[in-house]
Amino acid sequence: MLFLIIVLAMGLLMPFQTAANSRLRQVVGPAYVSTLVSFSVSTLALLLVSLVAGIPIMPTDQMLAATPWWSWFVGLVAVVTITIAIHLFKAIGQLQAMIIPMFSQLIFSLMIDHFGWFGSRVIPLDGKRIIGALLLIVGVTLVVILPRLGSKQQVANKGSKLVLWQLLAVLSGCLSASITGAYAQLASAVGNPVQATTVAFFVATMVLLLFCVCNGSVRLVGKAFSSEYPWWMWTGGLCGAIIVFGNAWLVPKVGVGVFAMALLVGQLSLSMLMEHHGWLGAPRKSISWIQIAGILLMLGGVALIRL
Angle at CA 199, nearest 5°, toward 101 and 77? Predict the structure, then answer.
């Protein structure tokens, strides 16, 4: 139960991370530049923790031999997933951009547990887990879908292009679940979640930095730390480091499915509070009893799967 509470708490960081990264992108411009800033902050934070704790940063030859080569590049997969997510909102509208990846991540997470992909421990998809997943889906419907049904959705693409973007939304959710499993596998092979997370973030940051240097946009990074703008907008990287570290540490203990679901419950809970109080510039929206019931159903679904 303690691990479940920790995952729920980490989910509370995600809306703050999203708000910070959105504000960061408004300042620096291109999405890949804001992603570079966020990943750089995450990497520096992890390097600092490694130095203070005396954790080796570079993997040994034995670690490299014990892990598939692609696992060290899982941070780049995260960059691809973030890039897709950024463009989904304009391409298929806010509601679909939220719901399709959310549901595909849920389903794929349960599949990872069931088949033991990415070296995760096998957790069969039994009746209890199916009921728990259905409770979560009903809860998401009450919290997210129903309140937005009456709002106008700006969809830039139609026809075959719309279907393509919807398929990319499904892929985005599957990649998110895969990243969760891959980080956990890397941490298990390395034996230390901090070292595994640090290396993965470092590789992704270096690739992003090289890309920004080549296209001449690296000069925009300095704007993120200018005193003209809110200091908190670059702290999304700190939230990202904590979430990914928690991913590598806790998934082997609770499974990919429970981790993804509990993270989602925490994320939606704080999102509702942010909208209710207008925190960090969020548009104010009152919390309805239907949404509260939805959160309770989601909590029940996670508890049922975990018990």
Answer: 25
